[in-house]
């Protein structure tokens, strides 16, 4: 649209399609006392890759520092909040300027949270960065964009990342590059918590951002935390030894489309298919692994029937594994070996966790097997935790 309006009188042009929206936008800004306005639909020179890269990389900052932000919602009615004005389809304010519209208004925040899925603490005090990465991906999990790659590019700002904009690459590669950079900079393993189809970019990343729509496992209730800590083993030396070893484990790393991931590993000893529906691509299995209660998983593809080999799984050379990804942040970032740290370790390791299912490949590499539902694994007891091993997996 930039080249369509250059050198022409905007208000003399026929008000049709996107041009009508632009005219209304400029008139609205003028009525509010502004002589200059910037619109992402026409103020980006998309014929210049350099200018397009700069605009996409800077857009979040421009909106963040703007004196007034005007949002046009063709299909929704949202409230007015702080210096952001929301207009309905006919360009009338959803709420007039005399109504309650400040971000300290609990009713406004509640309405915004319901509409966007974004917690009120982020709406009132948001900082760009890679913290709370899983939450930020969940906010965008229902979003649709005209260009598929923009589903990833539009998130560069909230993660404060600067990556190349490569229109023409697949959405899986655009999202994969974003997720890879998040792990590279932070080691955050929460973004591995998703369900659905795996990406061709990397097996640990989803093909679509909608896979983050499923909520992660909820925190363990305080009553259950108390029962976990009551299972304290007789020897505290083993607990301190485990705590020291976990603090020495390297952080997860992503480079060259390879994920180096520390995990508690549980070798599967039994796989039994309990149901199958090829028409809906749904296969359910009962799985047993030492240290874990029997668990049920649902996969979009049929799992290789290794149990049918002579001697069962014990004779298989490539046995799938249930793993628990580990990051030092799981202990709150503490490196002390005091009572509070060991108590936290007991609670953390004893609670249910979102597990990954890995299949072994040649050259000591692994591939994640995507699941249709969250794999909720439950440790048998604290003693079984000390029998499990942490190892580093190279996942492609």
Walk me through the structure:
This protein is an alpha+beta fold and 396 residues long. The chain has twelve helices and 13 strands. It has helices spanning 2-5, 17-31, 49-65, 106-116, 120-124, 133-139, 150-153, 171-186, 222-229, 236-247, 339-350, 382-387, and strands at residues 69-72, 84-87, 253-255, 258-267, 270-277, 282-288, 295-299, 321-325, 353-354, 356-361, 365-368, 376-377, 389-395. Strands 3, 4, 8, 10, 11 and 13 form a six-stranded antiparallel beta sheet that branches. Strands 5-6-7 form a three-stranded antiparallel beta sheet, with no helix packed on it. A hairpin with a 2-residue loop joins strand 3 (253-255) and strand 4 (258-267). The longest helix is centred in the N-terminal third of the chain and has 17 residues, at 49-65. The two termini are 42 Å apart.
């Amino acid at each position: 649209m930039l080249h369509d309006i250059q050198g022409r009188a905007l208000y003399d042009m026929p008000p049709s399609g996107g041009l009508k929206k632009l005219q209304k936008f400029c008139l609205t800004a003028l009525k509010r006392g502004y002589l200059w306005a910037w619109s992402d639909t026409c103020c980006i020179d998309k014929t210049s890759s350099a200018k397009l890269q700069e605009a996409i990389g800077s857009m979040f900052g421009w909106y963040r520092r703007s004196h007034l932000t005007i949002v046009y919602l063709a299909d929704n009615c949202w409230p007015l909040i702080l210096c952001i004005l929301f207009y309905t389809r006919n360009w009338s304010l959803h709420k007039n300027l005399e109504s309650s519209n400040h971000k300290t208004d609990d009713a406004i925040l509640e309405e915004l949270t319901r509409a966007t899925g974004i917690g009120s603490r982020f709406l009132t005090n948001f900082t760009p960065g890679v913290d709370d990465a899983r939450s930020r991906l969940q906010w965008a999990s229902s979003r649709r964009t005209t260009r598929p790659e923009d589903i990833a590019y539009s998130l560069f700002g909230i993660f404060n990342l600067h990556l190349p904009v490569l229109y023409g690459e697949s959405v899986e590669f655009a999202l994969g590059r974003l997720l890879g950079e998040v792990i590279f900079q932070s080691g955050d393993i929460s973004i591995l918590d998703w369900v659905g189809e795996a990406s061709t970019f990397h097996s640990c990343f989803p093909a679509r951002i909608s896979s983050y729509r499923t909520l992660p496992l909820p925190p363990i209730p305080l009553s259950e935390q108390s029962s976990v800590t009551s299972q304290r083993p007789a020897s505290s030396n083993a607990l301190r030894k485990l705590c020291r070893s976990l603090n020495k484990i390297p952080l997860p790393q992503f480079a060259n489309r390879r994920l180096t991931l520390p995990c508690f590993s549980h070798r599967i000893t039994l796989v039994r298919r309990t149901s199958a529906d090829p028409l809906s691509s749904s296969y359910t299995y009962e799985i047993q692994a030492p240290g874990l209660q029997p668990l049920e998983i649902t996969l979009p593809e049929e799992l290789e029937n290794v149990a049918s080999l002579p001697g069962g799984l014990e004779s298989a050379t490539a046995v799938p594994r249930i793993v628990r990804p580990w990051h030092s942040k799981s202990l709150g970032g503490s490196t002390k070996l005091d009572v509070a740290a060991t108590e936290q370790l007991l609670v953390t390791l004893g609670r249910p966790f979102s597990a990954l299912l890995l299949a072994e490949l040649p050259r000591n590499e692994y591939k994640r097997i995507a699941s249709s539902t969250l794999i909720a694994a439950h440790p048998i007891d604290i003693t079984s935790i000390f029998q499990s091993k942490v190892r580093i997996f190279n996942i492609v």
